[in-house]
Specification:
single chain; five-stranded antiparallel beta sheet; mainly beta
């Protein structure tokens, strides 16, 4: 079709990157139109599948990223796991210095200098697909006298503070309840749910609720701070399964709600 021919010519001429293009289009839930011919996100995926072009899977950026200076030559990093990730890339001052699998921690002992500030970030990956990098965190190695006194400096994606003031929060928010789905049209389904809370076993608020993650057919599609979401760019007469989780300000994520399936309206 002219539409597919145009898309493939863009990729061949390197005008746009196929994986990034598909990811951005799907993430924004937009239709792509050329010469009055439009495709939604599902139709676009089918076109590219048939053409043998690999789609890019959306992977969540690691959250709750923290860097702690432990000596004149070592900085320890940690973060919250990303759903669907098989490993993580570590960046120092914008350069990839390591990759790790099976864990969410890393110790940078690669020739650091005393009293020097370094900037770190982390991304998640699965296969050839890589998430955006986390917010960068800067932390300074010890100057020698600090090491003798046993003090430390900690950087996090929420700022920099002394290690003594950090309170570890490993309590996940409550799972959102009463998920409802309403098919609005042949290309839109609206979701809503009851607000969650970030409460400890003692009944006290922990770090505070930050927002919600939405999943379509088991795949992360969006985050929102509201208790409602409109999923657009869908295919007519197609059944979609949805679930929602809550996350707090330090990145702890609740279990996902029970999934709920809904079918879009047929084409008119």
């Amino acid at each position: 079709s002219p539409l597919l021919d145009q898309i493939l010519s863009w990729f061949k001429d390197a005008v746009i990157n196929a994986k990034e293009f598909v990811a951005d289009t799907i993430r924004a839930k937009k239709e792509l139109c050329i010469e009055d011919v439009c495709v939604n996100k599902d139709e676009l995926k089918t076109l590219l599948d048939n053409a043998g072009i690999q789609q890019k899977v959306l992977i969540q950026t690691p959250s709750n990223f923290t860097a702690v200076a432990t000596s004149t030559s070592q900085i320890d990093l940690s973060w919250t796991a990303s759903s669907g990730a098989t490993g993580y890339n570590i960046y120092r001052d914008g350069n990839n210095i390591a990759g790790v699998t099976g864990r969410t921690t890393y110790s940078d002992e690669g020739g650091l200098t005393a009293s020097t500030t370094y900037s770190y970030s982390v991304s998640a990956y699965a296969g050839d697909n890589e998430s955006a990098t986390s917010t960068s965190v800067s932390v300074t190695t010890f100057n020698g006298s600090e090491e003798d006194s046993g003090s430390s400096e900690t950087g996090s994606d929420n700022g920099t503070t002394s290690a003594e003031t950090l309170t570890a929060d490993t309590t996940a928010p409550m799972t959102p309840k009463n998920l409802k789905t309403v098919p609005i049209s042949s290309s839109q389904i609206d979701l809503s749910w009851t607000a969650s809370a970030d409460i400890s076993s003692a009944g006290e608020e922990v770090s505070g609720l930050a927002g919600y993650n939405l999943y379509e057919n088991g795949i992360f599609i969006a985050s929102t701070t509201a208790v409602a979401y409109s999923d657009t760019g869908l295919t007519a007469s197609t059944t979609y399964s949805y679930s929602v989780s809550a996350y707090d300000v330090v990145g702890n994520e609740s279990s996902v709600s029970a999934s709920l399936s809904t079918t879009t309206a047929g084409s008119i």
